[in-house]
Every structure is written in C-alpha cells, then in structure tokens.
Amino acid sequence: MRHLLSTADLSPSDALSILDTAEEMSAVATREVKKLPTLRGRTVVNLFFEDSTRTRISFEAAAKRLSADVMNFSAKGSSVSKGESLKDTVQTLEAIGADAIVMRHWASGAAAQLAASGWTDCAVVNAGDGTHEHPTQALLDALTLRRGWAAGRGHGPRGTDLTGMRVLIVGDILHSRVARSGVWLLNTLGAEVGLVAPPTLLPVGVEQWPVSVHYSFDEALASGPHAVMMLRVQAERMGGAFFPTPAEYTRRWGLTDERLARVERLDGPGGDGAMILHPGPMNRGVEISAAAADSPLNRVLDQVSHGVSVRMAVLHLLLSQSHDDGSSA
Ligand code: CP
Predict the structure, then answer these.
(1) Cα angle vertex 319, ends 316, 320, to 5°?
(2) Which residue owns the Cα nearest ligand 1 atom 1?
(3) ipTM
C-alpha cells in the first residue's frame, strides 16, 4: 500500500489486513501497552484545510503511539491565507521532513490529485475530501461493526468479514463522504447495505451503487437491520437551503425516542437490539435524539477509540514497508 485514498481501492484481503492489523494495535491504542517503536524517526504531517476533532486528534495519537514525530498544520492561520498553493505547501512540509501527509480538504478529489501529482514522495492519506470519501472513518466503522458481529457469533473478530450483516445508513447521503466510503467498504466485506434518505439528500446515480434505497425510515427499520448508522446533517454544505426543514427531517428521518424503542427491540448482532453508529459530531435533536445519543446501543465512543487503532494500522502499513511499485491502496 503506497497511499490510502479511497475504500473502493481496497480488495477484501486489503480490508481484512488493515482491520486485523488494527486489532493487533488495539492494546497500544487503548494504552494497555504504552508505545511501539515502529515509526521512530518518521514524520507524519496532519494537513487540514477543514475543521476536525476526531480525525486530526486520533491521527496524532496514532502516529505518536507508533513513535513517529507529528506536525499539525491547519490552513487557518497559515500562509495558505496569503495565497500559497497546495503544491508549495506540501513541498514546504516535505522539506521540513514529512514522510506521510494526512490531508483533509474541502475539494472532492484533492487527496487523489496530490498523490498523482508528482509534487511529493510522501505517502498520502485521505482524511476526508469534500463530499467524496473518508476511508479511515469507514475502516473504523467496519472495525466497530465487525467486533459486534463476531461477538454475536461467539468468536473473535480477526479474519472475519461482515457476510450476512444488514447495515442501514440513514440521513444526508448527498453530502456524506462517510456514506460513500462506507458503502464501498461494507460491500467489499460482504455486508448488505441499505440507504435511507429524503429524495433531496440522495446523490444522482445512487441506483448504480451496491445498496438498496429507502425513503421511509420506518419501513427500512421493518427490514430488521443489525446496525443503524446515523449521519450528520451537513447544513454547512447546503448553502442555507436546508430542505426538508429541520423539524420535518427529524420527524421523518431522525432517530427519535420512538424509533430508538424500535431499534432496542431489533435482533442486533447479539440479539439484544441493533447497534447504533454515528461518525460524529452528532447534531442532538436533529438526526439523533439525546436518548439515542446516550443509549448503550450507541457505539459512537467505541468508534472514536477504534479510530486510533485503525489509523495506527494505516500509518504502520504505509510507512513501515518499502514500496517499489508505486501502487496505491
Ligand atoms: N467523523 C469525523 O470525521 O469527525 P471530525 O470531523 O471531528 O474529524
């Protein structure tokens, strides 16, 4: 693996290899073991052109727990605001010693463009590009789902895929890089994926995706999902035109207290209610009620801690091996 740009590039064995490596990293991610020396002498740059809490901090924690040096770069407050280009920014960071660039950018395709540009020899990790992809989020979601799925079957997660698992992804699919990366990865791992959204928040061409599409959350819940992944409503990408209205959205597509009661009665992986996932940040009272946000079925904080294991695995696989073939994951 040379870069990590899209989950669509991952074969089933690539995906399982990253998830199994993340399982091996979990004792370090959770601080049972303090650090690994794997990336001593390597430097990871977090290059963020959009805001982030979970992704940036967990990449920093992941790199430090592998003994790498970390540089954090936020476009706000940098020479980007004076007009410096992406090419000059990246080459400046490489001249300071970067080996890997973890980039979040508002432009869809930015990470792939950087990896293909020839501007840098650094490994490039896509930490979210516009509405396009967020591959490490999909991997940490898959790790969370796989733990629940394997535990429900009475065995450990390593080597297990998601064959037979039914996952509903609910909400603002149109603007969601989490949904796109999730659909490709969950399909690769054998899960059955359903999308639930208002017609106005589904992308053109969704009928070509390997999913079933539902407009009614209540009908989709009747199909008996093992997991329900709620998406954040991305009002900042809607240009002030939130349609349907927030109240209608919550009533028809929100995980309300009433729908939480139905989720609690579903057969989840362990027969004790479906898993609830959310990539965060959660809009409490919009796509998810406070009771659902705080429910024991909600794995949102497990997802965050699994993000450290997954990002350790990705950095380890990218930086601790030599690549002579120029391949990307
Ligand atoms: N899930 C996610 O990408 O969160 P942040 O925007 O806080 O990184």
Answers:
(1) 70
(2) 279
(3) 0.99
